[in-house]
Design goal:
Layout lengths: L4 E6 L1 E3 L4 E6 L8 E5 L2 E2 L1 E6 L2 E5 L7 E9 L2 E2 L3 E11 L10 E9 L6 E6 L5 E3 L4 E5 L7 E8 L7 E5 L3 E2 L6
Length: about 180
């Protein structure tokens, strides 16, 4: 029986986005792998013997949470990840040509700086200052935020996707 081992996971993941777990010995069928985060079942979206794609449980609170992975009778030593809630604050009314609008992203779950990516999904309506895909670090601290700016190109509703930039690392087992 192959030993289940995790070789890389993101130290920080978004509560609303999937993340990858790399390793060996996972069950090839997503449904036969069990991932438990903070005492709640997570959804395994895809699986191979060397990788899992996991969606955190919907009721999970922001902050550190213990992660337990099992395939059959094989269990990986429990490790901790930090899960972040990302909330976009913006005036969502229609944007006028030439209008500047600031978007603020609140980060819940850590006081550390994190790297965020904004992606412009409606470039005909608004220009994301800095390009179509812009990376910013959050401020860190108790009011952990990042700011992005858009400029109206034509009247309409803009659409910006904000996501955490993942950084994989070797998991540190919990004591």
């Amino acid at each position: 029986v192959a030993k289940v081992e995790v070789t890389a996971v993101p130290r920080i993941a978004s509560l609303s986005d999937r993340f990858d777990v790399l390793g060996s010995g996972f069950c090839g069928d997503a449904d036969t792998n069990s991932v438990n985060i903070g005492g709640q079942a997570a959804l395994v979206l895809a699986a191979s013997p060397t990788a899992l794609v996991v969606l955190p449980p919907p009721e999970l609170d922001p902050g550190p949470a213990a992660v337990q992975i099992t395939c059959g009778k094989n269990t990986v030593p429990t490790f901790t990840m930090i899960f972040l809630g990302l909330e976009l604050h913006a005036d969502t009314s229609a944007l006028a040509p030439g209008e500047h609008r600031r978007l603020t992203v609140s980060v819940a779950g850590t006081t550390s700086k994190v790297s965020l990516e904004a992606r412009n999904l409606a470039p005909d309506v608004a220009e994301l200052v800095g390009g179509g895909v812009v990376h910013h670090a959050s401020s860190g601290g108790s009011e952990n935020t990042a700011r992005f700016e858009v400029i109206g190109q034509k009247r309409g509703n803009f659409l910006i996707s904000i996501r955490l930039v993942p950084n994989a690392a070797h998991p540190v087992p919990n004591e």
